[in-house]
Amino acid sequence: MAKGGDDAVRLDFGLTPANLSDEMKKAWPYDFSLQYSVTLGKDGLQTMLSVRNEGDKPFDFQMLTHTYFRIPVSEDFVGDWFRITNMTPQDVSKIQITGLAGTKYNDKLMNGNEFDTPSPNLRIEGQTDRVYKSLKQDTTSITVDGSPAYDVIRDNLADTVIWNPWTEGAQAIGDFAPKDGWKNMICVEAGAVNGWTTLEGQDGFEAGQILKSYL
């Protein structure tokens, strides 16, 4: 664990072929190194992935951050005292996802077909599994009833997956619990998944995100 002064703490996690079983080495016969860094600071939570090709043969890869957000609870203010009067998280239908203007998306629920984005903001009104490609701005935001909740700020990542399983999807996933948990969560996952990133021998790639909460 490395401390970044008084206002940040960073953890690094590494992986190389030395950590792989013989079976995994056969499945991925390349010389590589991965470093996943998590930094908690006063400005947010940063996650970064560094991929390096330590060999001579090029390889292709994709990456996705798999970031799940919980929809915040309803809150009331009474006089000068703060009081949470409803501890039940708000429904996912109360949110909007912004920052999607001027791009296209592939809809996995529609055989992966490509569509134009009709609006810069997205409401979740049913099962959703979309890959938004080559986003024009770096920040994708989640608002609840029009108020800011979270920012996802991408660094060297052009794509974002937005996912919510809704009732039918949650029932089909064996380890999704509770089964009505889809009402209170949303995935806004920055990544590089529109095609493949090719890494030549002795070359590297680094990308990540900063997550900010306004709750």
- Helix count, DSSP H or I runs of 4 or more residues: 2
Low-confidence stretches: 76-87
Structural class: mainly beta
Radius of gyration: 20 Å
- The tally of strands reads 17
Strand adjacency order, main sheet: 1-2-3-4-17-14-13-9
Determine the strand fraction and express it as a percent band: over 45%
Shape: globular
CATH class, please? Mainly Beta
CATH architecture: Distorted Sandwich
Mean pLDDT over all positions: 90
In angstroms, what separates the terminal alpha carbons? 27 Å
Largest sheet: 8 strands, antiparallel
Helix content: under 10%
* H-E order: EEHEEEEEEEEEEEEEHEE
Would you give the CATH topology? Beta-galactosidase, Chain A, domain 5
- Give the number of domains: 1
Report on this model:
It is a single chain. The protein has an eight-stranded antiparallel beta sheet with strand order 1-2-3-4-17-14-13-9, with no helix packed on it. It has helices spanning 22-27, 166-172, and strands spanning 2-3, 8-15, 32-41, 44-53, 59-64, 68-70, 73-78, 81-89, 95-98, 104-107, 113-116, 128-133, 139-144, 147-155, 159-164, 185-199, 204-213. Strand 1 (2-3) and strand 2 (8-15) form a beta hairpin. The protein is built from two helices and 17 strands. Residues 76-87 have low confidence and may be disordered. The chain has a single domain, classed as Beta-galactosidase, Chain A, domain 5 (Distorted Sandwich). The protein is mostly beta strands.
